[in-house]
Structure formats: C-alpha cells, structure tokens
Design a protein that fits this description.
globular; 19% strand; D-Maltodextrin-Binding Protein, domain 2
C-alpha cells in the first residue's frame, strides 16, 4: 500500500515497507556519523522506531543549517538543525513549512576553541588574531551575539572562511589561533590531531552570556499536519534512543560504529558523553523532562538575537517551536 502525502514544494511518498507495517521516514542529520548521532542509530537497532511503525533511514549533514532547507522543501520530512538558524531562515522565507518540535541540545554546544599557546584563553584574546570559521557553521552564525556580549571588537579579528574538513587541522597547524564549532566536535578532533588538552581553551558561548537554545528535531509542517501520529511516534523513539544512550553509552556507540566503521570507539564515546553532560541532560531537562522549551528563555533568546539580527517581521515563538507533537513525560533518567 502506498499513501501519498503532500509536503511543501515537493510530493513525498511515505511507502509502507513490503511485508511489514513500517512507514519509511528519512531523517536528515546536521553532521557526520559521530558520537552525538549514536542515540538515533541505537533507536534503530533496539527497535524503538520499529515499535512506532517506522523504518527510519538517517542521512549525514554538512552543518547546523544543512537540514533546514531539506525539510522546508519536503526532501526530508524530519531533520536535526539549529533552532536559531531556523528562526532566521523563516524570517527570510516567510511561510516556509518547517518548525522545531523537540529540543535536543537544551544547552547549545556553540563554542570558540582556541589554543593557549597561540594566545587565546579568553574572548577578548581573539582581537588581533585569526579566527577560522566555516560559513555554514551554527556556532559562527551565533558569533556576533558572543562578540557583543563580551565586548569583542569584531573588526579587530581576521576571519578566515574555512571548510569543515580543514577547520581543526588549520588550528592544529597554527594557521589560525581559534575556530568556531561545536564544543564536542572541535575539541575531540583536535585531540585526535595531537593537540594537548592543556593547550586548548574551550569558550562555550552559553557560559559567556549567550542565552540561546541549540539543535532541535525539525519537521515539515505540512507533513506533520497530515501525519501527527507518525511524528509523535518518531519523537518518542528519539527520546528512547537518548535515554538508552545515557544509560549505556558504549552500546550506543556500537550502533554508530556499524554505520561508521572508521570511527574511533573511545573518542566517539567521549564525544557522546560530552554532549550528554553539557548539552542534553541539563538541570532543566532533569527537572522538566526532555524535548520542551521554557517560553521565557525562548523569548529572551529572541531578544538577544534582535541585537545582532534585524528581523523583517516581528518574531513569533509559535512559528519556531510546536510542542503539540511531543509525547508527555519524556524523562531521560
């Protein structure tokens, strides 16, 4: 049986897998198959998606902004992306059928990672130095807020546009003094490249005045309206995957290694644990459950974004986050 569903700019067919009751649901990640993506693969291997009648296929991404147009056009019904970049996308593309439905990184991993031996230990140290920043990077997108909150003269920084594959190697080689990136990605990539941990300064933007949320599960709103139970089932399985990964990180990384055999298990386990400890299992999530947002904090994040970005239309939280598909009572411990 084939059931056709209309989505934004394209038609996406969600086919029932032959011989089963599973609906195919492609999922667009923000980045490569690394530690923080392990919970989604664990959800496949442990049957959490299958229990919701879903056959989920996960695709790699090329940065925090990558999944947004994929979902908005209907190429993918669900994805994983930076909610702050989503706000700007919707301001520039009013009415685009995409919104966030589950917050994953309650505390965003946006960071500036520098080397102490190259003179970077505090935000103001970036002045007079070279900063490597990939244009599609979510952390770079939020850098103006970080700069404003810390009194950094951005004009005194030489910004070197770099590719994701060359970002950490350039820092390791001393060609730049710092880079923007996700804390758990850049830090461990540099460690793998032989940079001593005590030479690294990890400036997590959330610890330096940036009151933003991070990456969230996003959906094509027209797909979601036609398939609310499918979306809720997907979110339920995602939460189960994160809960399982928190309880047994090693098992989650085993699921990752199946898809990325070249990955270093110890390194990716450390990367996953960093994401859990700093970004996912926050005090707010422990107290209030996984997946939701605090309206007051979101309003504050919008006001902070206004200081560095001029919205064409007055921002509306309801356009950026829809909690109606979230299962109730999602606790990770």
């Amino acid at each position: 049986m084939i059931r056709t569903m209309f989505v934004a700019a394209t038609m996406l067919a969600a086919a029932v897998t032959q011989g089963t009751a599973q609906e195919k649901l492609p999922f667009a990640l923000d980045w490569k198959f690394e530690g923080p993506s392990a919970p989604y693969f664990m959800a496949i291997d442990k049957g959490y998606f299958e229990a919701e009648g879903l056959s989920v296929e996960i695709s790699e991404g090329r940065g925090s902004l990558d999944a947004i147009p994929k979902v908005a056009t209907g190429a993918f019904p669900v994805g994983f992306a930076d909610i702050n970049s989503l706000m700007r996308f919707l301001d520039q593309n009013p009415g685009a059928p995409v919104t966030a439905v589950m917050m994953v990184y309650d505390k965003p991993p946006f960071a500036v990672v520098g080397r102490k031996s190259l003179g970077v230990e505090a935000p103001k140290d970036l002045e007079g130095r070279v900063l490597g920043a990939p244009p599609p990077d979510g952390a770079w997108a939020q850098f103006p807020i970080f700069a404003a909150e810390n009194g950094i003269d951005s004009g005194a920084i030489t910004v070197e546009p770099v590719g994701f594959p060359t970002r950490e190697p350039m820092l390791a080689e001393g060609k730049v003094a710092a880079v923007t990136g996700f804390s758990f990605s850049s830090t461990l990539n540099l460690k793998r490249l032989g940079v001593p941990a005590d030479d690294l300064s990890v400036l997590l933007m959330a610890d330096y005045g940036v009151s933003l949320y991070g990456n969230a599960i996003i959906v094509n709103t027209e797909f979601a309206a036609e398939n609310p139970e499918m979306v809720t089932g997907f979110l339920k399985a995602v939460a189960a995957g994160w809960k399982g990964a928190i309880a047994d990180p090693g098992s989650a990384i085993d699921s990752l290694i199946k898809r990325n055999p070249a990955a270093d298990k110890a390194l990716e386990t450390e990367r996953l644990q960093m994401a859990i400890d700093a970004n996912v299992l926050t005090d707010y999530v422990k107290a209030n459950g996984f997946g939701g947002i605090d309206a007051g904090r979101m309003a504050e994040a919008i006001e902070q974004t206004k200081t560095v970005y001029e919205f064409a239309a007055e921002p509306d939280v309801s356009h950026y986050f829809d909690a109606s598909y979230l299962p109730a009572g999602l606790m990770l411990q």
